[in-house]
Each structure stands twice: as C-alpha cells, then as structure tokens.
Amino acid sequence: MPWELINFEYKKDQRGILVPLEKSRNLPFEIKGSFYMLGMKKNTIRGKHAHKKITQVLIAINGKCKVSLNDLMDSEIIELNSPYIGLIVYPLTWIELFDFSPDCIILVLTDDYYDENEYIRNFEEFKKLKNTNKISLKNLYKKCHYEPKIVVPFRELAKLNQKYFSEIEEGFRRLFQEDVYIWGEEVHLFEKEFAQHCGVNHCVGVGNGLSALTLIFRAYKELGVFKDGDEVIAPANTFIASILAISENNLTPVLVEPDINTYLIDPNKIEEKITKKTKAILVVHLYGQTCEMDKIIPIAKKYNLKIIEDAAQAHGAYYKNKRAGSLGDAAGFSFYPSKNLGAMGDAGAVTTNDKKLAQVVRALANYGSPQPYIFNYKGINSRMDEFQAIVLRAKLKRLDEENEKRRKIAEFYLKNIKNPKIILPYFRKREDHVWHLFVIRTEQRDKLKKYMEKHGIQTLIHYPIPPHKQLAYKELNQLHFPITEQISKEILSLPLYSDMELEKMKKVVDIINKFK
C-alpha cells in the first residue's frame, strides 16, 4: 500500500524527550515543506486531496485524529495518536483527516515545496487520473520508500557481550602469554567447568554444534555400537542439523511427529517406529524445553537403544533435577552466538559419562589422532579455540542468572498477551524451560509477521520448512507429517533476550494484542 507507519527514534533523559526529524534519522527524505494544523473541531474534515508527486509525513505531535487513505486498490483508516509515530503517505493517495481531539496538533512534512498545481482536490478527477494515467510508482518508491525502523530487535548480541567485556579482555591478555591457541588451557578449563555444570564426567570442546552431534554418531560407529544403515529415531519437527548428523554417518533417520503443544518429540509415537535396525533415539530439547525423558528412557531401555541429546537450545535447562546434557548417553551442544550460552563465533561441545566415547570423540575431532602423529581413525578437524573458550567461561558463570531473566520475560508475555488469534507456548515446569525462543502460533502467521514488522518489531520463524520437505532430503519429500507441517506454517518467534527492557516487552504485547 502507498502508505505506512514509521516509529521514530528518540532520546530521553531527565530534561525530557528529543525527537530528531531529518533524513539521516527517522525520515525517508530531506524536508522541503512543513506546516502544522491545530484548532480543528471534532466534526472538521481536513485534507480531501491527493498529491501528484509529493510524499508527506503526518505526525500527531499532540492529541489525536483519524486519517482515511485510499488509492482505489486499498483503503484504510489509521489513528494518529503519538508524537513518536509518523504516517508516510506516498503520491496518488487520497487522504482525509477527521475526528480530531480538541487538543490535536498535526505536523506535516513534505519532500517538495508547496505548489497548488500539484494538488488533486476533486475525487472524480483523482479516480480519472489513477485509471487513465498509468503512472508507475516503482521509481517513486525507490526514491523515497522507507524501511520501517526496528524498534524492538529480535536480539541484541552486542549489548549482551558488552557485559562481559572486562572478563573477556582479561582472558585475552592471558592468551597473549600462551603458546597454544587450539585446545589449550582455556579450553581445558571450560571443558571441566561445563562438565560440572551439566553434571557429567566428560566434556569435549569442538568446532560447532553440528560437529558435536555428528561426532557422537561417528564415535559410536567406531566403537561398534552403530553400523551403516542402522536407524535413529528423531523428531520430524527440528532444525535440519539434527538430521544431518544422522545421515552424515550413513545412518537412517526415522522421523516421529511432535506433541502439538510442546513441539517436542511425542513419546507416545516413538515405539511404533522402532524396528530391528533401530539403535538410538535422538531427543531435541527444542526452543529451550527438555523432552519428557521419564517416558523416553523406559522405551530406550526396553529396546537397548542409546539416547543422544540435541541440547543446542537448552543450556542450563533441567528435567527433574538433572541438567540437559546429562539426560542420555551423550549430548551435543552448540555455542552459536545467539544461544543462551553463546560464543563470539562458532563452537560446540559433547558431554557424556562414557569415558571411552569421550576419548574417541576427541580423537575424531583432531584428525582421528589420540596423540601427536598417531592416527587411529579417518577423522576431521573440529576443535574449540582458546578465544571462544574464554568467552564461554565468562558467560557460563552467569548462565543461570541469564536464564532466569529469560523466564521472567516469558512469564510477562504469557501473562499479558491476550489475543484469541494467538496460541501461546506450553511448558511443563518452570525449570524445564530456558526460553531460548518464545514461539507462538497463529493461522495468520505471515500476516502477523508483516504486521509486527510494520510496527518496528522484528520476528523470526523457527523453522519455515521442516527437514523432510527440504531439497537436501528429496528422498523424504513424499513423507507426510501433518502436525509438523502445520507447526511450520503457524509458528512465529517473538523477541526475547535477557536484557530486554520492560518498555520493549510492553511494546510487543501492545502491538500483538491489537492484531486482528
């Protein structure tokens, strides 16, 4: 539509509020014309015209009014009621202002000077011009189109990392005194500290989360537990890395539908997928919530299956007093920068109580070498570096504190989002969820996403296409998982990060509650 709302950046301190209005900040053009309207009575109608070439921004700097917009293809009535929001109206849009509050003052800014010949003041003339003069607005949009300013970003990693600057800087100074930069003392200390945090005996730092999972499956093959063609039960609703780790090892993923409420693998649907070839269950603690292990562990024991955790989104989460990473036979973690425990680059880890497994994983990640220049396996290069270990050690100390902040933000959303079109996330127990993502559902997902973006709120989709529908797994494309496919079409992740200000949380709630 040839009109849109923009949210203004402003500065607020003890002296008051300052709203800059210039092209470099807040406006899509250089101001050439400006005027304001005041003293309108409630039944007054202003405007009643269109412009041939002028783009304008309308701002209610005091009070409120309604604006009717029409370009013969779309029409809308918008209420202007805030000095921090502007309404951009592009050329060839019929505009009328009405329903003024007694204190209303409307400021109008334009990208060209006043010219009476530039106005279209007769609606019939406007319709004729729109219908006969096929003016393309593409060039006009290219010249002045304004991308809505992000008022509430999905995350603010720079702000988060700044809190740890002094500790990271101190670690970096230590690093300059060392001669080992890969799998050195900092990595060794992190492995020890993270193992203690998870409640396991062993931790191996690797290059990334995908490597962590892949190396677990590979190590089990080297130990003779798995062989080519064996099957691994896995959730259909997951990020593709979970499935890649299986197929990369010539194992066969057997997908299971999720619980529609938790989005996690449905324990009640696992047993029906088990065959003589099944050797493991991969549980994915998706979005930060641990799976129902009390239902999954008995199945694994009954059929002598390994349980491997994809804990890439569940750092610090509990299940009945045990942490993610200690709930199965082995677990893979990602420390991608946006994770609850995030590095400043790629990094990952494997946790386990199995000493032999840990030894094989470590060797495989080091070209297959358990000791210098001795190669027992055809390995890969996937090792955590010292810098990432320094970052992770600093952040690990405050992980529980950061997760608690996330829980409180999630609780604010759960308490205050009240819209019948929105399905809020379900969780079992408070400590079971660390809210890596706050994922809602609606049948109007794409419409809601555009609506949120229009109001300056950044959202993401985790994930829009499930693994079995990706080209990479064309051999699975014919499979149909209705719950997984429904979820992928309806989910939307809202902004949630540990240092999110109350003002931004309220903004998200206010905008989503007004969605129709």
In a nutshell, what does this entry contain?
By secondary structure, the protein is of the alpha+beta class. The chain has 14 helices and 23 strands.
Give an overview in words.
The protein is built from 14 helices and 23 strands. With 516 residues, the protein is an alpha+beta fold. Strands 13-21-20-17-16-14-15 form a seven-stranded mixed β-sheet, with helices on both faces. The chain has a five-stranded antiparallel β-sheet with strand order 1-9-6-11-4, with no helix packed on it. A hairpin with a 2-residue loop joins β18 and β19 (322-323). The chain is elongated.
pLDDT average, as an integer?
93
Figure out the total of helices: 14
Shape: elongated
Query: Beta fraction of the residues?
Result: 15-25%
Spatial strand sequence of the major β-sheet: 13-21-20-17-16-14-15
Into which percent range does the helicity of residues fall? 25-40%
Q: Report the uncertain regions.
A: 134-146
**Would you report the number of β strands?**
23
Structural class: alpha+beta
Q: What Rg is obtained from the alpha carbons, in whole angstroms? A: 28 Å
Largest sheet: 7 strands, mixed
How would you describe this structure in keywords?
23 strands; single chain; alpha+beta; 516 residues
Write the layout of secondary structure elements.
Blueprint: E1 3-7, E2 11-13, E3 16-18, E4 33-38, E5 46-51, E6 56-62, E7 65-70, E8 75-80, E9 85-89, E10 94-98, E11 105-110, E12 119-120, H1 123-132, H2 138-144, H3 157-162, H4 165-175, H5 185-198, E13 202-206, H6 209-222, E14 231-235, H7 240-247, E15 252-256, E16 278-284, H8 293-302, E17 306-310, E18 318-319, E19 322-323, E20 330-334, E21 348-352, H9 355-365, H10 386-396, H11 399-416, E22 438-441, H12 445-454, H13 482-490, E23 491-494, H14 502-513
Parallel strand pairs: 14-15, 14-16, 16-17, 17-20
Antiparallel strand pairs: 1-9, 2-3, 4-11, 5-10, 5-12, 6-9, 6-11, 7-8, 7-10, 13-21, 18-19, 20-21, 22-23
